Amino acid sequence: MAMDTTRLSRRQLLAVSAQAGLGAVVLSLGAGVARPRAGLAQAGRSGVREIRLEARELTWELAPGKVIKAMAYNGRVPGPEIRVKEGERVRVLLKNGLAEPTTIHWHGVDVPNAMDGVPGVTQKPVPPGETFVYEFDARPAGTRWYHTHFQEHKQLDLGLAAPLIIEPTRPDPVPVEREYTLVLDDWVTGMGPPVPPTREGIAGGRGGQGGMMGGGMGRMMEGMMGRGGMGGMMSGDHTPAYDTMTINGKAYPATEPLRVRKGERVRLRLINASADHTHVVRLAGHRLQVTHTDGNPLEQPVDVDALPIAPAERYDVLVVADRPGAWALTCLAPGHRVAGEQVLVVYEGHEGDAAKTPDEGLAGLDFWQYGLGRGRDVLPPPSGRERVYDLALSGGMMGSDVWTINGKQYPRTDPLRLRRGDLVRVRFVNHSMEGHPMHLHGQSFKVLAVNGVRYARPLVKDSVDVEPHMGAVVLAFTAHNPGDWFFHCHKPMHMEGGMILLAQVA
Ligand code: C2O
Ligand code: CU
């Protein structure tokens, strides 16, 4: 959508037309000519990419008969995909058409602090009826996203989220013939049985080096199988009962099939916009090659059968379309497929085929885990002091909705006081019984170790899932972006409960 359509290559055109079917792209295609729909994006006179977003309430049909009140950017759930080139100047005019304040956070983008969208920290919330202008250079390249940062337990949960794709300026090391962006989300509609909450580490065993070895696999299976029913008793009952799972705002069978052609390499950009749920994505009949973690490239793709994605995480995966037919892409987490998390991948010429779904069984599958990836070091080198912080994540005891870092609730949590250029090492230990996808604003980090296992080639991410029951993550970043940055659990209920601190880079 936010592409300069006059310069569309055939490859891009394919990607666009593929996405247009999903409603994820604001382009209309006629006779092979792409025209931007009025209003969303224009390259300004000054070479600034100008994008207009309006947040407002609407009714949204998740699936036939499942109509809810939602909040959306430009009348769609998820909001329109913004696609820009790395380094491009982006100006977003956010009009607040809601009856309450809002802001936008550019998740995974190294924006100037004042553009970061955190109410009360980097800006005043945008009042109803007013417009706020965000302006920043789009970097780094990768699958980023944008979402509200105001009362996310409500606004994010109701749909104020969307992809932000920053295309690299250098030729893509992983060329593809087609691509789709898939935004995964969890919903409370009251119109179906609740899905068991993600409690035990679905990502269990991420610390291990090998997918099939050691306890990782066992823990994961245990985690996935053992969660029904138990979760509610063991932990907070304040988590809403999610009953519907969507892909690009729709629950199966309302999801728009992904069309492919035999022989194509297809990129899927997976974004978990869920408030609470980890998803485990699998495509029947195909392996997934993981190429990027939170938008950042791996040295080489990692082949897996299934990919757990914690809230706020993104993965780019490559699918080689070499098995013509109709196949279901589904989530393996208990109850998720039935709750709507399925989309069909249909090869050209196989439109009428009965779709094959993946086995529900988990035995013998290769699951993605952090330890399998070798990250490319794309972060700026440190020039200052090394600082080390130990941060204990706790809370949720006896159903409480208090969530703490080193025993304190934001805003009483101790900030990390940093200087530009510092090498910052953070060691998280999770003393609670729920996972915490911890997200740092303003700069990405390296994942140095998980559950005691060190990585020789750390992944680069901006959100990392710290597993329940003493899960541990060591990460490091170069404090290169000055300002006050939120560092928090991405589950809105946990944020609300206080699991936030500030990284202050002077
Ligand atoms: Cu995607 Cu502070 O969040
Ligand atoms: Cu949390």
Features:
single chain; 506 residues; mainly beta; six-stranded mixed β-sheet; binds CU-O-CU linkage; binds copper (II) ion
Protein architecture, described:
This protein has 506 residues and is mainly beta. Helices cover 7% and strands 41% of the residues. A 6-stranded mixed beta sheet has the order 13-12-15-20-17-18, covered by helices on one side. Strands 24-23-26-31-28-29 form a 6-stranded mixed beta sheet. β1 and β2 form a beta hairpin. The protein binds CU-O-CU linkage and copper (II) ion. The site of copper (II) ion has 6 residues, from loops.
List the helices and strands and how they pair.
Elements: H1 10-22, E1 27-30, E2 33-36, E3 41-43, E4 49-63, E5 66-73, E6 82-85, E7 89-96, E8 104-107, E9 131-137, E10 142-148, H2 152-155, E11 161-167, E12 178-187, H3 216-225, H4 230-234, E13 244-247, E14 258-260, E15 265-272, E16 279-283, E17 288-293, E18 296-304, E19 306-309, E20 314-320, E21 326-331, E22 342-347, E23 386-395, E24 403-405, E25 416-418, E26 423-430, E27 436-440, E28 445-450, E29 453-461, E30 463-466, E31 471-478, E32 483-489, H5 492-496, E33 500-505
Parallel strand pairs: 4-7, 6-11, 12-15, 14-22, 23-26, 25-33
Antiparallel strand pairs: 1-2, 3-4, 4-5, 7-9, 8-10, 10-11, 12-13, 15-20, 16-19, 16-21, 17-18, 17-20, 21-22, 23-24, 26-31, 27-30, 27-32, 28-29, 28-31, 32-33
The structure holds CU-O-CU linkage (C2O) and copper (II) ion (CU).
